[in-house]
Amino acid sequence: MSGGVSVWWATPARPDRHFTDRQLAASDRYHRPLRRLAVIGHVARVGFLVIAAVVAGAIDTAPAPTDRGFGVLVTSPALLIGAGLTAAALRLPAVAVDAWFEYRLERPDEAGEGTGGAETTTPVPVPWFAVTVSALTGLIWLALVIVGALGYGLVANEARWATILTALVLALLAVATVGERAVRRRLPDRERPLAVEAGPDAPADARAPEVVAELDGLAERVGLVGVPYLVSRGGPLRSPVAGAVPNACAIGVGPNRRVVLTERLLAEARPLRDFVVAHELTHLARRHVAAQAVVAAVAYTVTVQVLGLVAADGRAWRLFGLTPEDPLGMPVVALVLVAVGAVLGPAIALLARAQERMADAGAIASVGPLEPDAARRLHGLASADLDPPWWVRIFDHHPAPAERLEFQARARLARSAVLESTN
User: Which residues are 166's β-sheet partners?
Assistant: First the structure.
């Protein structure tokens, strides 16, 4: 909390109190097509899954040989076809969205003022775009084949399949949470340590030990010691934070915890840099990353159990002439998962927004609130949606920018009142 403002509920704020009409108009021009595209993409994904389920129901193929072992099930035509239809239904809307974004979207300028489309995205070369799309679709198809073989093998041979599958999912989540740093180390150009010593060949952000010493001082204010700082890099695989904007993120649990910064953030003035880093350090101090892992585990457990109940009923599959035991019905499984995700999404987002408010409050307590111009500039550099509609907010993991600025404005007023009373 800060300035008497709850971290759980939205801080009433009017966007026009914190942003100019020109900034709001530029943001709306940028985000209105994105919102429309997101809705179209979700509707198209559901529609493609329904079409895939209809096609699967019309295919006459022998049931998968679930009683002959995992290897035979993986190579069965029913499973290969079901996974292929599902992968195509999931990927085609995303491919269309990616292509439209890369080739058509106009961005506002850095200050958030808007240029009416003077700056546009750089088109991705068509061959490379096609290769990445095909590779990712192939990987999704392969994953669906492997996971589908395991899942349908359990459905056919084990009455307690939902409980067993839940245990396997939780075990996989635990391994991924603990071992994610080891995986990241093997990915090219993802993260590199923020150099402590500045040698002749050191990168530009290694300004002697002073930078790391300053960041360590921030960590001590929130009760942390020995937090590693890494710099996000570009590469074939996207970094967890975009390198072109001043940003940072808190990653990992236990000994894997760290703060990843962009080079752009390191180039910013210290008040803005310190606020962003203090925000992420508060996430680590409050164990928000671990809490998110727990929430994910609960969400996965609920999802699998609901899937078990729907499969036991069987009506969703019979609508398309399928049965839950038939791997051709994998598009129906995806439809159930999409529906459960849509129901759980607002609750998960509510927790995430509360964590973001806690992190803002922690940064304010550590380094004080940002000046209004710096706070507005930060949101403008990130091309944030300055006035999102309600249906976007309930699924958004971050509070609306105007709410966050209002939170800081109230903190400044509270701090000024305290100073006046002491004087």
Answer: none
Neighbours of 237 (CB within 10 A): 10
How many whole angstroms separate alpha carbon 234 and alpha carbon 189? 6
Q: Compute the distance between CA of residue 62 and CA of residue 58 in angstroms, rounded to an integer.
A: 13
**Average pLDDT, integer, range 265-271:** 86
Please report which confidence band the pLDDT of residue 50 belongs to, taking 50, 70 and 90 as the band edges: very high
Q: Is a pLDDT exceeding 90 seen at residue 352? A: yes
Could you tell me which residues come within 8 angstroms of residue 335 by beta carbon, excluding any fewer than 6 positions away? Answer: 46, 49, 50, 53, 316
Answer yes or no: are the C-beta atoms of 343 and 206 closer than 8 Å: no
CA dist 385 and 241 (Å) reads 17
Fill in the amino acid letter for 202.
Answer: A
Look at residue 237 and tell me whether its pLDDT is greater than 50. no
Residue 179 in contact with residue 99, Cβ under 8 Å? no
pLDDT score, position 199:
47
| Orientation of helix 161-185 relative to helix 126-157, angle to 10° | 150
**Amino acid in position 305:** Q
Half-sphere exposure in the Cβ direction for 308 (13 Å, CA): 18
E strand map for 220-316:
229-232, 248-251, 258-261
Average pLDDT over residues 174-181: 71
Neighbours of 134 (CB within 10 A): 12
The CA distances from residue 224 to 281, 292, 389, in Å, are: 8, 19, 37
What is the distance of C-alpha 202 from the center of its chain? 32
Give the sign of the dihedral formed by CA 394, CA 412, CA 272, CA 185: negative
Task: Return mean pLDDT, the chain.
Answer: 79
Rounded distance between C-alpha atoms, residue 44 and residue 21, angstroms: 34
Separation between Cα atoms, residue 401 and residue 347, nearest integer Å? 20
Angle at 50 between CA 47 and CA 54, to 5 degrees: 140
Distance CA 101, CA 382 (A): 16
Q: Which residues contact 251 (CB under 8 A, 6 or more apart)?
A: 180, 181, 240, 257, 258, 259, 260, 289
* Maximum Cα–Cα distance across the chain: 84
396-401, long-range: CB < 8 A, 24+ apart? 396/349, 396/353, 397/348, 397/349, 397/352, 397/353, 397/356, 398/352, 398/353, 398/356, 399/10, 399/11, 399/353, 399/356, 399/357, 400/10, 400/13, 400/15, 401/15, 401/18, 401/19
Is the CB of residue 89 less than 8 Å from the CB of residue 52?
A: yes
Q: How far apart are the first and last CA of the chain?
A: 25
- Residue 116, pLDDT score: 39
